[in-house]
Structures are given as structure tokens and as C-alpha cells.
Design brief:
The chain has 395 residues and is mainly α. The protein contains 19 helices and 6 strands. The radius of gyration is 33 Å and the shape is elongated.
């Protein structure tokens, strides 16, 4: 090495190759001035290049079981059942004071010994589960380091699924982490947390954070169909508020308390009667109920508002002919947005919540959003105020 002044000692160096013809191997060894080494070989007491499914490959591990040296080995290969049984036997003898010459009766089963201390065990690692967990770190790293060169090489060589020509390491990894049936633990343990949305295929997920949203599919698709346009920042924020309301992720006081945010008064800031929740704020609050009554009177319909926002949405959406649903969903979203804005105005700016003003602003906001959303909606505000359902026929 030029920087340190060190040089390679070719007399102590050996060349090990895999899947190369003998004459090619000889030429490489001659070029490097070193000898050819047979595979498998032993390095730092570990067998390199041997089949991980053979007991002979694991014999050095059994000798060094109580050291940290085998950790890399068991984090890379799936331990055969016979090797796991042999390791457990060695540890059992050590625990109960036995030896090769004489055995002692174990007082507690090995499964109970491996249980956590809080459950009456000793907290000794279950070697089989520990091996699977270490292999699972490779799958985890592939999810996070998918842009790294080593991950790209593996994906280009083996692909994402099962490959009959893959190495034993890759097959064991799939079997342990992402395959049927034992490997489902890894897939089932994953969940998506929505960030910027660049990597989340939202409609491909049957669940989101454990909460069923299939019944909200039509509403969320309509919300997502809005095309961002210059000057529509409030519309985009309105879509975000509607989405969080339907998933109960909006910052109502009960949700803030659930996240251990100190709230001096959990009651609704509008009516000051019941505790503020998504269902109360956007549906059953006496102040907001007046807004919905004005909306329904304007549309020429009426229904008893349920306490749940999801039920409110489902009931609201089934009152209309199918050709008007998209426009009326926009009305529903505009009311949700304006209620949230009015609530924040009262809390943070000491304003007042007037149901009539909130209704009129929501009606105007729905008209603005429909004008931006679809080119066929060309009606003026007077037509929209007087004949809303007729205006929606053109959407």
C-alpha cells in the first residue's frame, strides 16, 4: 500500500475462487503470485464457502458457542434444526451443571427458560428465534437501503420473489422472513406511516395502521382526484383535513390527550358541553348541527345526523343520485373544512362561531373548489345559491 508503506506478502496470500474453470484460476494465481486455496476454507475459526445446511459447517460454531464470534455466522445463515438442538443441549448442560461424562436432569424445560423474566423465565435467548430475527435485519435493510449498491446487486441477481437458481442464503432468507408460512411474521409486522406519499401505494393497502378504510374508498378517491392548481392552497389543505377527519387523525382535544399532550379543558370549544372528539365536533355538536341543518335545507333534503363522522359521510353520500355524488362530496368536504377553520378561529384568535356564517362560507368554498376542479362547472354564484342540485348536473 503506497500511503502506509505496507506491502502485500504474496507468500502468505492465497486465492480462493468459486465457479471458475481450473485453468482460469491458475492464471489468476500466477498473475497475483499466490497459491490456490481450496473451498471451503476456515477463516477466524469459521468455515467459509461450505454448505450452511451441513452439520460439519457448524462444528466450529459449537466449540465457540459461548463467545461472540459466531454472531456474524448466525446473522447470515439459517441454522439447521439439528445444530439448534445441539446448541441447546450444550447450554442446558452448562446451566444445570452437567458435562459430557455425566448428565443432570433439567428441572425446567428449555422453552420456559427462554421466556422473559416477567413471565417466569430466565430471559435466555431462543437461538432459533434469534437467528430468524438476525436474518430479518437483512430484509429490513433492503427496505431502507434499496438505493445502495449491494441491494441493487441482490435485486438484479435474484429479483424480489423465489428463484430456483438462487443461492441457499437467499432461499433461507425468503423462507425465514418473507415467505409462507413462517415468514409472515415480517410482513405482518410492517406498517406504513404516511410521510410525503412518494412511496405509499395507498389504494393497494387493505388497511392503514390497522384501521379499515374500504368503506371510505369512494370519498377518498374523489378527494384525491382534485388537481392541484395555482391559487388552490386552501383546497389542498381542505382535502388534507377531510382525509384526517375520516381516519380520526385530526388534532381534536381527545386525540391530543391520547398522545399525552396536556390540554387544560377537554370540552368542545364550540358548545362547551361534551368532550371534543371527531364525532362530536363534526356531527353531533349543537353548533355544528345547525350548520348541517342549513346545508340540508339549502339542498332540499333532511336526515338525522349520526354521531360517527364515518356514518355521517356514508349516510350523506347515499341520499343523492349517483350523477351528483362527486359534487355533493365536495359540499360535504367544504363544510368539514369550514367547521375546522371556525373552530380554530375561536380557539386561537378568540373569534366567534356563527353557524350561519360558517354555512355561507362553506357554500362559497364548495363553489370555488368545483370551479377549479371541473371545467364543465361554469355556473355563477347566484345559480349555485338558488339551484345547487341543478348546477351539479353538469359535473
Amino acid at each position: 500500500m503506497r500511503g502506509s508503506g505496507m506491502k502485500v506478502n504474496f507468500h502468505k496470500s492465497k486465492l480462493a475462487v468459486i465457479s471458475l474453470q481450473e485453468d482460469v484460476t491458475t492464471r489468476f494465481a500466477s498473475l497475483l503470485h499466490c497459491r490456490v486455496m481450496a473451498v471451503p476454507f476456515v477463516y477466524l475459526g469459521l468455515s467459509i464457502g461450505g454448505s450452511p445446511h451441513r452439520l460439519s459447517t457448524w462444528e466450529p460454531i459449537l466449540v465457540k458457542l459461548l463467545t461472540a464470534l459466531p454472531l456474524y455466522f448466525i446473522s447470515f445463515f439459517r441454522i439447521p434444526k439439528g445444530v439448534t438442538a445441539k446448541c441447546n443441549q450444550i447450554m442446558t448442560r452448562f446451566l444445570w451443571g452437567g458435562s459430557e461424562e455425566g448428565k443432570k436432569i433439567p428441572r425446567v424445560s428449555w422453552a420456559n427458560i427462554c421466556r422473559p423474566k416477567l413471565e417466569g423465565g430466565l430471559g435466555v435467548r431462543d437461538l432459533d428465534l434469534f437467528n430468524v430475527a438476525l436474518l430479518g435485519k437483512w430484509s429490513w435493510r433492503m427496505l431502507h437501503d434499496h438505493d445502495q449498491m449491494w441491494c441493487k446487486v441482490l435485486m438484479s441477481k435474484y429479483g424480489k420473489g423465489h428463484n430456483s437458481r438462487a443461492s441457499s442464503w437467499w432461499k433461507d432468507l425468503l423462507k425465514s422472513c418473507v415467505g409462507e408460512p413462517a415468514g409472515l411474521w415480517f410482513e405482518n409486522g410492517l406498517c406504513w406511516r404516511l410521510g410525503e406519499g412518494n412511496c405509499t401505494q395507498f389504494w393497494g393497502q387493505g388497511e392503514f395502521s390497522g384501521e379499515k378504510i374500504s368503506q371510505l374508498d369512494s370519498m377518498l378517491r374523489i378527494v384525491s382526484s382534485f388537481t392541484p392548481v395555482k391559487g388552490m392552497s386552501d383546497c389542498e389543505r381542505g382535502m388534507g383535513v377531510g382525509w384526517k377527519v375520516l381516519l380520526n387523525r385530526i388534532q381534536t382535544r381527545d386525540n391530543l390527550l391520547r398522545r399525552q399532550v396536556p390540554i387544560p379543558d377537554p370540552r368542545c370549544p364550540l358548545c362547551s358541553v361534551d368532550d371534543e372528539s371527531v364525532g362530536h365536533l363534526f356531527s353531533s355538536c349543537s353548533c355544528v348541527s345547525q350548520v348541517w341543518s342549513l346545508v340540508l335545507n339549502w339542498l332540499g333534503l333532511s336526515f338525522a345526523a349520526p354521531a360517527s363522522v364515518k356514518d355521517h359521510f356514508v349516510q350523506f353520500s347515499h341520499l343523492w343520485p349517483s350523477n351528483k355524488k362527486a359534487g355533493l362530496f365536495t359540499v360535504w368536504l367544504a363544510v368539514i373544512w369550514q367547521v375546522w377553520m371556525g373552530r380554530n378561529e375561536k380557539i386561537f384568535k378568540d373569534g366567534s362561531f356563527d353557524p350561519v356564517s360558517v354555512f355561507e362560507m362553506a357554500r362559497l368554498k364548495a363553489w370555488e373548489w368545483l370551479r377549479y376542479k371541473t371545467s364543465s362547472f361554469l355556473h355563477g354564484t347566484a345559480e349555485w345559491v338558488n339551484e345547487p342540485l341543478a348546477c351539479l348536473d353538469d359535473i
